[in-house]
């Protein structure tokens, strides 16, 4: 029998793993007659906040709007500078652009591929106090260096909004990613570690006033129904997605543990022989104080297309997150800006299958194919 195809992410498998509970949750919502911002959203907000160690969660329509509303809530306005990285999905920049704020891209750390605190410091010094907010992205499930970023932000009078779209459940120095900055933005896009069956997002913060402001901004600026205290919008999480997310939240810790086991197997198998081959593959680095959640398992090779094709021919999908850094994309182009580490990472990264529906045998199969390619 031919080997089954391996996908980079498998939202259908994630549904099937919890099908009975999800169907029961959907039935419960359908029968309730409450479909937008009701008891399921409130319960999910409470339960997700508890999983974060306390604080407030505000469910919103998607991760992009979670970033935007968090930035607006801390006071970012048109013309303000916001620092972030360029090796992220367009959504991070889109949220900043929606406000009319200015994007300041800073360089990444060569090993971990998340925001470099040293280059952030240079950007903050050069900007002379004009950077209003910093948006570190915990890319691939590996958090940015939050202790250093928070310290720099305080020293330079900037706020911090963590982009946690890929880091549900990750830890930095024992504290959840998302609990370091002024607020954090989550996406529940179906392929995320905590994924809905549709769009969804949330803002997390330990600041009650900030939470109230986000709550107003997500629904027309209302505190009281039909009274807009400030300009707001519609960015609501619906009851069906919240009920499904409650099911998925219950499985998040165990599924992250599965991802860690799969990643450990990749590191063990590929670590043994990666150095011995004629070709070169670099394995992902994990910072000392970080517990990642392996949203992606990302290797690097200057021969990315060759390896990708080799795997594809053997039924193994490998993704490229992200092929073009934001400062080289038409919408956000900054031709004068050079970010060598970011540009090199985008040219070399290859995401291997890592999701909870995979087995160790699947990882062995991918590893064997890569080891064979390395020595070919
Ligand atoms: C790093 C990052 N930021 C933001 C987002 C935006 O989330 P959404 O697609 O829910 O708007 C995503 C998800 O695609 C993401 O991966």
Automatic annotation (TrEMBL):
InterPro entries from the UniProt entry: DegT/StrS_aminotransferase, PyrdxlP-dep_Trfase, PyrdxlP-dep_Trfase_major, PyrdxlP-dep_Trfase_small
A Pfam family cross-referenced in the UniProt record is: DegT_DnrJ_EryC1
One GO term under biological process is: polysaccharide biosynthetic process
Modified sites of kind N6-(pyridoxal phosphate)lysine = 192
Q: Which domain of life is it from?
A: Bacteria
Catalytic residues identified in the record: 192
Q: Which UniProt keywords apply?
A: Aminotransferase, Pyridoxal phosphate, Transferase
Citing just one GO molecular function, the answer is: pyridoxal phosphate binding
Does Transferase show up as a keyword for this record?
A: yes
> Record's family?
Belongs to the DegT/DnrJ/EryC1 family.
Which named protein is this? Answer: DegT/DnrJ/EryC1/StrS aminotransferase
Species whose genome carries this gene: Opitutus terrae (strain DSM 11246 / JCM 15787 / PB90-1)
Q: What is the lineage of its organism?
A: Bacteria, Pseudomonadati, Verrucomicrobiota, Opitutia, Opitutales
């Amino acid at each position: 029998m031919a080997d089954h195809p391996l996908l980079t992410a498998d939202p259908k498998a994630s549904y099937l793993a919890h099908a009975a509970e999800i169907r029961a949750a959907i039935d419960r919502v359908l029968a309730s007659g409450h479909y937008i911002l009701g008891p399921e959203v409130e319960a999910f907000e409470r339960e997700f906040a508890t999983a974060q160690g306390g604080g407030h969660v505000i469910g919103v329509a998607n991760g992009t709007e979670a970033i935007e509303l968090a930035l607006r809530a801390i006071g970012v306005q048109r013309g303000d500078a916001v620092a972030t990285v360029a090796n992220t999905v367009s959504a991070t920049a889109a949220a900043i652009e929606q406000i009319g704020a200015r994007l300041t891209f800073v360089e990444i750390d060569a090993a971990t591929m998340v925001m470099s605190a040293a280059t952030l410091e240079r950007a903050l010094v050069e900007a002379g106090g004009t950077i209003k907010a910093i948006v570190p992205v915990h890319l691939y499930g590996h958090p940015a260096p939050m202790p250093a970023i928070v310290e720099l932000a305080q020293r330079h009078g900037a706020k911090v909004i963590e982009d946690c779209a890929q880091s549900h459940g990750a830890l930095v120095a024992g504290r959840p990613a998302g609990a370091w900055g002024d607020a954090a933005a989550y996406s529940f896009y179906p392929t995320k570690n905590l994924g809905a069956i549709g769009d969804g997002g949330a803002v997390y913060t330990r600041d009650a006033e900030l939470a109230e402001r986000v709550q107003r901004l997500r629904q027309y600026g209302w505190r009281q129904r039909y009274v807009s205290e400030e300009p707001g919008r519609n960015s609501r999480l619906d009851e069906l997605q919240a009920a499904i997310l409650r099911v998925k939240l219950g499985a998040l810790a165990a599924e992250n543990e599965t991802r860690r086991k799969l990643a450990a197997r990749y590191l063990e198998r590929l670590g043994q022989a990666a150095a011995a081959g004629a070709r070169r593959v670099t394995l992902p680095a994990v910072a000392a104080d970080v517990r990642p959640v392996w949203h992606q398992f990302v290797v690097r090779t200057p021969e990315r297309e060759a390896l990708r094709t080799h795997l594809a021919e053997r039924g193994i999908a490998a993704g490229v997150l992200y092929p073009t850094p934001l400062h080289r994309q038409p919408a956000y182009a900054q031709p004068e800006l050079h970010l060598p580490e970011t540009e090199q990472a985008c040219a070399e990264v290859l995401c291997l299958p890592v999701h909870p529906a995979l087995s160790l045998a699947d990882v062995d199969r991918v590893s064997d194919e890569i080891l064979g390619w390395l020595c070919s």
